[in-house]
Specification:
single chain, alpha+beta, HIT family, subunit A, five-stranded antiparallel β-sheet, 5 strands, binds guanosine-5'-monophosphate, binds zinc ion
């Protein structure tokens, strides 16, 4: 079990101190439904170790990142959104609108999402 960072909502979800609709969990990560979904399917993929955002990733995290990205495919398949397409997003810092300073990948799909970059 990772050390719980006080006041980090995702650490609290990982520690089961705060409930969430968990769709997948293993030793390295947890995936749960976003409380304020921005698409029909909106899952957050969260490493159990508290890493604030992409800037804090180190070489030692490479296997963890690979694990999470590959699990995204499995979860997308399990939830039936793989064939129709999905988006994986990481918000980093203020200008990106990052609200929770514990790195997470948004997995969005289940409907047309529109283009982000034109
Ligand atoms: P960010 O803006 O940091 O990239 O994304 C944070 C996401 O976490 C938001 O989409 C927000 O709805 C979600 N979120 C914030 N607090 C909670 C919570 O307590 N439970 C769940 N399931 N999602 C949360
Ligand atoms: Zn945390």
């Amino acid at each position: 079990m990772s050390k719980v960072i006080e006041d980090c909502i995702f650490c609290k979800i990982i520690a089961k101190e705060v409930p969430a609709e968990i769709v997948y969990e293993d030793d390295l990560m947890i995936a749960f439904k976003d409380i304020n979904p921005q698409a029909k399917v909106h899952i957050l993929l969260v490493p159990k170790v508290h890493i604030p955002n992409n800037l804090y990733l180190e070489g030692s995290h490479k296997p963890l990142i690979g694990h999470i990205i590959l699990k995204a495919n499995e979860i997308a398949k399990k939830l039936g959104i793989a064939e129709t397409g999905f988006r994986l997003i990481v918000n980093n810092g203020t200008d990106a609108g990052q609200e929770v300073p514990h790195i997470h990948w948004h997995l969005l799909g289940g409907e047309p999402l529109g283009r982000l970059i034109c």
